[in-house]
Amino acid sequence: MPDALPLKMLHDRLLVVLDKDGSERRSSSGIVIPATAVMGKRLAWADVAAAGPSVRQVSRGDRILFDPEDKSEVDVGGTDYILLRERDVHAVAQPEHDDAGTGLYL
């Protein structure tokens, strides 16, 4: 994700980068399921690159879950982005904390 984008987001709009790892998935037995396989409605993960001033619950750098059928694609500086409204976001992933430590009890 670039640090500075040559555009300013307006209202409740989000500019996100689609998760490239989400295109293929594996079944529980290890069989690769391609992105073109139709298995019903499936949500997608993306990372927020920019957010408009009216966005309240999502910020830049968050990982979000959304419906890929309700998207508008845009190319900015050679990078493909997806433009969404904040209300189209279904969930925001919680940050992962590595609090495992050494596993030793004192």
From TrEMBL:
Keyword Lyase (UniProt): no
SUPFAM superfamilies named among the record's database cross-references: GroES-like
Signal peptide: none
Keyword Acyltransferase: no
Keyword list, A-Z: Chaperone
CDD domains: cpn10
SMART domains reported for this sequence: Cpn10
GO molecular function, one term: ATP binding
Annotated InterPro entries: Chaperonin_GroES (IPR020818), Chaperonin_GroES_sf (IPR037124), GroES-like_sf (IPR011032)
Sequence similarity: Belongs to the GroES chaperonin family.
Name listed for the protein in its UniProt record: Chaperonin GroES
